[in-house]
Each structure stands twice: as C-alpha cells, then as structure tokens.
Backbone:
C-alpha cells in the first residue's frame, strides 16, 4: 500500500493546470511545475522561521549565594526570638517608617515551617544593631532581590557600592564624630527621600536600619541616613551625628545605582 | 493577606489520587492552589483579604489601539511576556529560597532557565513596547516544596492552555512559529512537574485552550501580582544628620 | 529538469488576508529574483516550493501527514502492548498514550473524511518487543511527532491550527513522559525545534519506525 493515493496526485495536477489557465484580475504570474511520478516525500511546505531569537538558557549558578532580599511589611507583627508564637518577643515591627514610607525588612536564611505556619528570619531596625528575629511569613509581602551591597569603611572614610562582585561606585564620606559614631554592623537601606527642602541633607537622603547608640532620644528614632550635604568642604572627615554624608554629585550618582533594600555594612 | 491556614484542600488532584491535604497537611498554601484549580468552574472570584488588590488589571496590556496586525500581535506578545514573567520569577525565587530538593530542585533549575530565556526573547522582540516586570508576592509558595510543586503544575497547565488559545489569532507566521515552539515546551514542563507530583503527565488525549479573560481571572485570583511597595518619600529627613 | 508550479493570486480570499500578504511577499520575491515573463511561464532551476499560503487544500495535505504519524504511533503502541513485555511505569505509559494516539487518529480520519490516506504497513522490528528499545523508540517517536506538528502548524489555516494545537501539546507531554522513563531530561531545550516533512520522515526512518 502506497502512502500517496494516486487520485489525489492527479487531482492536484489538474487543479493547478486549471488554475494556471484561469484569467486573473491584473497580471497573474504562473510557473508550471510537473510533479514527478514518484510522489515526493517533501511536498509539504517548509517550517516557518521563528520571529524570536532564543538565547541559550542561563541556569542560576549552582552553589552561588543567593542575592540579598527584602520584603515590605504588610501587617504589623511581633518579631520573636524563635520561630513559634510562644517565643520571647523581641520587637514590634510596624508597617510604616518614621518617614511614612512602607517599612521593609531584610530577610535572611531559610524559611521555617512550625505548626503549619511559615516563619522567616529578618534583620531589625533596632538597637542593638544588626539584631535579627523571627516573624510570620504572612506579615510580609513579596520578596525583592538585590544584587548591590554598600560597604562603608570608617577608617578610610570611603563608601563603595558593589553590584555582584563588581565595584560600581566609590566616594569619600563624612561619618559620625567620635561622640556620635556611625555604628558598626550590618544594616540595610530602608527608604529614599527626595524633593524635600533641607539643604543640609542634599538632594537625596537614604534611610537605613542603623540607629545611633547615642542618640536614643532623637526624634524619629535616631536612624542613620546616607545623604548629600551643604558643607562638602568638611568631607572626608568625622563630622556628623552618625549619618554618612557625601558630596551632592556623589549622592546623585549613588541614587541611580543603589535600590532601596541594599544591604549596608559599616566597618 | 487572608489567613490561609484554615481552608481545607479536600478535592483530589486526580480522581482516586492523593488529596492536597495528604500531600500538604498544613494546608498553608492550599488556598492559592485551590483557586487556580477551581476557577474554571466557579468563575471570577472576589478578592479576599485586607490590603490585597486586583492588580492584574494594572498589568493588562493595553487593548490594541487599532486592530492592526501589528498591534494585535504585539498585544499577544505582551500577554505571553506577562505569563513568562510570572513563571520565571516563580522558579527563580523557588530556586533561591532553597526549599526544594532532589528531582524537584533539578526541575526548577532547568525549567527556570527556560522561562528566563523566554522572557529575554520576548523582551528582545518587543523592545520598548515590552511591559515591565511586575512585582510578585508568592506568599510562601516558593518556600514550601509541596506548595511549590502543586502551583507549578497549575502554572504549566495554565501556560499551555493560554498559548493554545492565542495561536489561531496570531497574524504573523514567524511569530506563530515562535509561540508554538514555546507552547510545546510549556507542555513538556507540565508533564515533567506532573510526573514529579505523582500525577498523570498527559491526562487527556486533547488539551483545551483557555481564553485570555479566564487566564487573567485565575492569575488575578492567586494574588501573586502585587503593587510595588512605596519605599520613596518626600518628607524632610529626620536622620541623625 | 523539473519546472515548479506556483499559482500566485493577486486577490486573496477575504478569509485569510494576513496570510495571503505573505504569499504576495513571496510572489514579489519570485518576480524580483526570477527570469520572468509577465503572464508567461517561468522555467528555472528553482527549488521545489509548494505554495505555503494556508488553504483548505493544504490543510488536507498537512493533516494527512499528521494522520500518518498518528497511525504510526497508534500501531507502535498497540503492537508494543500486544507483545506483553512492558512492565510497571512503561506499561502504564504505553496504555495511556496508546489511547491518546488512537483518539488522535480517529479525530484526523473524521476531519479528513474521504481524503484520509490509508496507513502503510508498519514494520517496527524489536522496538516493540524489547522494553529498552521501546523506551528509546518512544522518545524518538514523540519528539519527532512534536517537531513535525510544530513544523507544519504555521502553514495551517486558523481553524485547522486550533485543532492541531490541541494535539501537539499532548504529543509534547508524551515526549517529556517518555524521556523521564528513559532517564533523560524531559525538556532539553528552551524551545522545541520545528521539523520539515523530510526531516521528520528521516528521523522516523533512522529510528526504525518508518520504511521507504
């Protein structure tokens, strides 16, 4: 039994010949083909070329450390010493920062499941600096991953921003005077303020989770910021009440490179 | 967000097969998955939970300004891109959260790379017309192996049905070739994850298309697409200074 | 020397306007590229080019090719099950997939009606009796079936495409399933390659599933 049905073959030729003889509106181009008597096995049209160019899939590097992540606080929650509802409370985490932006937390390590609930470990914006605690997963919104890290070196009065392993920004900075030092530790950038009228803070001010150990009575909590200045002549130096200051052109540059949620290490 | 621990997930995944309860006794993420499975019968569901908003609408690609070939095809491409963003971010996050092990981790590793590749290709062809990546909140599903697995089954089956419904509408032949090539890979993904979930990789002789509105309703219902948190402000700083 | 027939209409059907603009583009290319007499006959060594603008006629040709593949698949799985040497998951796979391929074959037969081609005699050799060979053959068969459908999909009219699309994803599921059972990666590439008819036939021949 052949695959090609002879009648079909003949019909096609007849149809084509008839079509070739029919007068068309306008100019008709006809090219006559005589199909060979062995029915060709490649009579179907070729596949269409794809409109999309597909790049080689790039798997995530196995074993590589996952980028840092943060999440917004959707519902106020009590952060606890351990991942269960009876554990010692450490702090209350609210949904808003003192600047009325959405509060965010840096999320660390692996999620734990306890008694049917998911718990995550988060870095807190409290003293002692760098403290972490556990909160229910459902108090937080979606994770946002960031590849940037800001390192502030107090000895060399320098701030360096990394993207992955690459240095993408460097600037000399002013930090806290000896009486009001910029605290050492691991923190994160919590918000970003612009279009305010405080030349002392320059054009952009980033809020961080770092708090001054000294200025515990400071209105709005005594958080350390990263911002511009109207006294660039003082930089670099130990000149502030704890904030990290840089020249306005530097903070503008940093503003283009550093997203909120970026981890901050002060050495 | 609504409390997701109280809802039982009683309906079997496969007639006679294990129920979601048995696979995921805590039921923590059952609600999201249940909704995906049931939406075709129940239709549009109201949003539940304080603070949650229906945001797919914000991400709906604009209706074609004029029903030109190009505009229609572009709308289809952006729709595909949204579904690929949803899947790519899902797999990427799951892999990073490290809750998966063994064969499931391998599947997420391979399939995530495919979905990211789809995103890149669709963005490349759309250029500036490409919609931006939305923010996602996977609500713990990426942090729990069985919730991940069941949601991945739903996502892949959904992607297959979504692409299938769009194929006959595509005007450009070369675009159609590209979308068909993605559509069948999504079906491979679906069979793979179903196998890992102990389900029939190919449950029916024919797969059905799903029209866009229904797909959007299902995605809306998961609550996975969210508005970005507002972390910027204009208040005068009151930092230590 | 073969002379190729192309009937290139300038007035497309109302039904498939966009696809016919591609035919027009093809026509323009031929006119620009070939030695041509208006209203006359072009005789060149042009490669064989079927008119690929979608049409009901072309649908029938394509669906007949799809039918051949479904006939092959249905026969392959039926024969494999009849031998009785498949066990466990492989047997379950064969049972489920056999049912699907039969359903596909039936669907295409009734869509084509009197135009449906009868199947050739298939000779599968040991691929149906040896479980390991069965596993490898099933992978090749499903991968090829999928590639053939993807290759011809864009050549179909919208309604035929809708129908074929409901089948092609099932073939892809079969392909992934067969690969899992054979210890291979179910989805080796980010996108599936389309095959031409010739490539698909060659693959099937190489796998010992199609002769001549």
Residues:
């Amino acid at each position: 039994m052949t695959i090609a049905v002879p009648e079909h073959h003949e019909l096609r030729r007849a149809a084509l010949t008839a079509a070739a003889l029919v007068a068309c509106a306008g100019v008709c181009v006809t090219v006559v083909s005589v199909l060979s008597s062995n029915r060709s096995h490649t009579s179907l049209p070729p596949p269409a070329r794809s409109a999309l160019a597909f790049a080689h899939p790039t798997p995530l590097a196995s074993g590589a450390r996952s980028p840092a992540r943060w999440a917004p606080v959707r519902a106020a929650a009590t952060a606890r010493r351990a991942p269960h509802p009876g554990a010692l409370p450490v702090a209350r985490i609210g949904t808003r920062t003192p600047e009325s932006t959405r509060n965010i937390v840096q999320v660390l390590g692996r999620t734990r499941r306890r008694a049917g609930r998911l718990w995550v470990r988060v870095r807190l914006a409290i003293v002692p600096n760098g403290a972490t605690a556990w909160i229910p997963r459902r108090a937080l919104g979606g994770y946002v991953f960031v590849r940037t890290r800001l390192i502030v070196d107090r000895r060399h009065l320098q701030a360096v921003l990394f993207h992955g392993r690459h240095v993408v920004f460097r600037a000399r900075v002013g930090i806290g005077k000896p009486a009001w030092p910029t605290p050492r530790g691991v923190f994160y950038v919590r918000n970003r303020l612009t279009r305010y009228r405080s030349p002392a803070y320059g054009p952009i001010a980033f809020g961080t989770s770092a708090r001054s150990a000294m200025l515990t009575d400071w209105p709005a909590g005594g958080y350390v910021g990263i911002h511009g200045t109207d006294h660039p002549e003082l930089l670099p130096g130990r000149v502030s009440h704890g904030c990290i200051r840089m020249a306005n052109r530097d903070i503008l540059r940093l503003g283009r490179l550093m997203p909120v949620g970026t981890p901050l290490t002060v050495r | 967000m609504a409390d997701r621990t109280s809802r039982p997930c009683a309906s079997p995944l496969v007639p006679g097969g294990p129920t979601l309860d048995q696979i995921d006794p805590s039921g923590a993420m059952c609600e999201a998955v249940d909704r995906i499975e049931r939406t075709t019968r129940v239709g549009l569901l109201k949003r539940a939970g304080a603070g949650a908003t229906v945001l797919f609408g914000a991400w709906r690609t604009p209706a074609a300004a004029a029903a030109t070939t190009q505009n229609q095809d572009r709308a289809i491409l952006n729709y595909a891109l949204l579904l690929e963003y949803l899947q790519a971010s899902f797999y990427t996050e799951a892999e990073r959260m490290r809750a998966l092990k063994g064969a499931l981790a391998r599947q997420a590793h391979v399939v995530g790379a495919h979905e990211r590749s789809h995103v890149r290709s669709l963005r490349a062809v759309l250029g500036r017309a490409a919609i931006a990546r939305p923010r996602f909140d996977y609500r713990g599903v990426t942090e729990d192996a069985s919730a991940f697995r069941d949601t991945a089954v739903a996502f892949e089956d959904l992607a297959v049905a979504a692409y299938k419904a769009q194929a006959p509408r595509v005007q450009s032949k070369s675009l159609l070739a590209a979308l068909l090539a993605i559509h069948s890979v999504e079906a491979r993904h679906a069979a793979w994850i179903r196998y890992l979930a102990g389900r029939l990789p190919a449950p029916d002789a024919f797969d059905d298309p799903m029209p866009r509105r229904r797909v959007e309703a299902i995605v809306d219902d998961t609550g996975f697409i969210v508005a970005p948190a507002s972390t910027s402000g204009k208040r005068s700083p009151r930092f230590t200074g | 020397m073969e002379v190729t027939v192309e009937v290139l209409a300038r007035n497309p059907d109302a039904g498939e306007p966009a696809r016919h603009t591609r035919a027009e583009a093809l026509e323009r290319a031929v006119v620009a590229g070939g030695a041509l007499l208006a209203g006359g006959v072009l005789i060149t060594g042009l490669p064989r080019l079927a008119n690929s603008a979608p049409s009901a006629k072309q649908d029938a040709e394509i669906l007949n090719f799809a039918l051949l593949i479904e006939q092959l698949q249905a026969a392959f799985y039926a024969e494999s099950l009849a031998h009785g040497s498949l066990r466990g998951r492989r047997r379950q796979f064969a049972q489920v997939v056999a049912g699907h391929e039969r359903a596909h074959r039936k669907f295409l037969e009734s869509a084509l009606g009197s135009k449906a081609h009868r199947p050739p005699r298939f000779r599968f050799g040991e691929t149906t009796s040896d479980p390991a060979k069965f596993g490898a053959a099933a992978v090749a068969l499903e991968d090829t079936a999928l590639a053939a459908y993807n290759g011809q999909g864009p050549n179909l009219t919208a309604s035929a495409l809708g129908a074929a699309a409901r089948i092609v994803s099932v073939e892809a599921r079969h392909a992934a399933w067969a690969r899992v059972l054979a210890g291979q990666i179910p989805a080796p590439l980010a996108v599936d390659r389309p095959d031409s008819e010739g490539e698909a036939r060659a693959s099937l021949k190489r796998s010992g599933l199609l002769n001549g």
